[in-house]
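Data availability (excerpt). The following record was deposited with the supplementary files.
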Amino acid sequence: MELYTPVHVGFLKYCRALTGNHEDALDLAGESILVVLKNLDKLRKQDSFKSYLFGVARRLRLHDYRRIRFRGVFDQKMAEMLPDRSSLPDADYDVKLIYSLLDRLPTKQRETFVLFELSGFSLEEIRQLQGGTLSAVKMRLQRGREQLRHWLKPSVEKPQTSRLGQQERRRANED
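Predicted structure:
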């Protein structure tokens, strides 16, 4: 405090000159004092306190100037003319539904479907990532598509994953 008291009045005047109004000057002075007190142990000579304090205030104000450049004046008419880039409410529901259905697929099928349909990987690239054969990748993709189609349109016949299920269906149709 003994270092700051002699420069207090001059420092506040300096901050007022930098900012242009009393409230911003007090904010700048307070912020500068906090920075200086936090780094007071780095000060080598007590004689350089004044220049250090004023330098901190100057750098903080320059930092504010840089930020101010990115601020603009709000114009209601211009804001109303900007196109709305947000998605439609029903599109958000559709996206959430698709992702929830994807989560229900077996891991390998989901991964294959996402890599092929959403990420644009080729079947060969997916085979290299997942291992196995190309026909296995094709089968996982086909089964994933069929399962998603069934969940989205329940009237579509449910895909069978085993021969046992196909045999049971044939017996039921024969009876």
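Summary of structural features: The chain has two domains: 5-68, 90-161.
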